[in-house]
TrEMBL record:
Transmembrane helix among keywords: yes
Coiled coil: none
A Pfam family assignment: Anthrone_oxy
Keywords (A to Z) from UniProt: Membrane, Transmembrane, Transmembrane helix
Organism of origin: Hymenobacter bucti
UniProt key word Membrane: yes
Protein name (record): DUF1772 domain-containing protein
Positions of transmembrane segments: 7-32, 52-74, 86-106, 144-162
InterPro entries in UniProt: Anthrone_oxy
Amino acid sequence: MPNKSWVLLLAMLPTGLITGVFYGFSVAINPALARLPDAVYLETMQAINEVIQNPLFGLPFFGAPLLLLWATWLHRRAARSVAQPLRLAALLYLVGNLGVTLGANVPLNEELAAFPIAHAQASQVATLRTHFARTWTGWHTVRTVASVGAWGLLLAACLADATPRAQKKA
């Protein structure tokens, strides 16, 4: 049986990596993309959506919830100061990050991928951009906040787990 504290710490890495990706999009990439003309914006988002589908993103994105659930299960009888923020972190990541991505952002990405930008009229491109950018960015903000919250709660659980009192109750 692995040391449950190590599993807790291990969960920090992919959760932090994905939080960083989403935060970076929110504070730099999305504002930069907002400055682009409609067709260039849509083409750029199509390219990003293709490129991000790789193991370097997928492994931490899907690994984080697995490690969070494993750490939560291992700490189910731990001190409340460890177990409670860990349960909340797992729930926040599963619903606000994984759930929002798969339920909202991915369908929007698929809709965008199917749109023939090169053959569309300027008005169609402008309409799709307005719809896509507003909706995608709104949902992206939700998952960014959820990721930051999950990572913060996970950090709180790690810090509480490191205290001697929490380890005695476990």
